[in-house]
Each structure stands twice: as C-alpha cells, then as structure tokens.
Amino acid sequence: MTTTPRGMRQVMDWSAAFWAGLVAGTVFLFLNLWVIPPIPAANPWVFLRLVASIGLGDGVLAPPATFDARVLAVALAIHSALSLAFAFVSAIMLHRWGFFVGLIGGAVFGAMLYAINVYSLTLAFPWFFGVRGIAFFSTHVIFGAVSGAIYELLEKEEFVPVSAEVAS
Questions:
Q1: Exposed/middle/buried for 164, CB within 10 Å: 0-12, 13-18, 19+?
Q2: Per-residue pLDDT tens over the stretch 32-53
Q3: What pLDDT is recorded for position 161?
Q4: Residue 153: CB partners within 8 Å, gap ≥ 6?
Q5: How far is CA 125 from the centre of its chain?
Q6: For the chain, what are the domain ranges?
Q7: pLDDT at 27
Q8: Which of 61, 75, 84, 118 can pair with 21 through a Cys bridge, CB separation 3.0 to 4.6 Å?
C-alpha cells in the first residue's frame, strides 16, 4: 500500500494506464480467440465478427465466419478503444493502493464489467446473448486483473499538494 504524504494527493499515471489497457486488451483478445473456438461450430473469427458487429451491424455475423480485412480492422479498432477506456476507468478507481489491490480490485472490476457489458450490450445487440457464460466471464476477470496489475507495476507514483480550498 502506498503511503500518501500528509497534505498531498496521488496523481494518476496516464501512461501506465495506457500500457495496462494495451496489454490487458491483447491478453483478453487472445484468450477469447483461444476460448471461443472449442464451442461447437465456432472459430476465432466468430469473436472478431461479434466485436466488429458493434460498429458494422449484424450483417457481419452471417456465415461463413472467415477472414475479412474490413471486419478485422473494425474489430481491432473497437476492441482497442474499449480496452483502453476500461483500463482508464479501472486505473482511476484503483491507482492509490498498490499491486495486490490492483490485481484483486481489477479482477472484481472485470467481473462487474462482464455483467454490465453482457447484460446491457444484449439490449442493443441481441446477438451477444450467445457469449454469456463462464468462459467469457473468466476472460473479463482476467482482463481486469491484468489491467490492474500492469498499471500498478508501471505506475510512477507522483504526489501533488492538496489545495487549502479542497482540504477545508
């Protein structure tokens, strides 16, 4: 746990949050490309097409789920943007405490992220109903844990004075 000097507050390290999002997003992507294929009649392109469907609509889900450069580009852009955004939110919430809180708190954040994503996303994109389950839940928990842990490992702790107006 980080000890904050009296009259000081810790500043979030945006660079560490960026790299945490990039690493956690990459781990999440590869885990989902590895976890989804064992599902009968699925392949790695199914997950990428699901992500791309957020921007391109359900037309990209039609079989066959094979390589398509446009789908890949859109899926990677959407996935990267979401990974970075979620890592920034996680870092904002957890940046004050240290590695173990980053790891465990990040895992809890990932579990909450799963619930929010899967149960609200299906309202706008009903075809996401099919990814509900322990495998997708697990990859979200791992995303959160990796994001929190990487952030805490890379974070450069910086403190700034708390202004008298805020303290009173």
A1: exposed
A2: 988 766 565 667 788 889 899 9
A3: 81
A4: 99
A5: 19
A6: 10-157
A7: 97
A8: 84
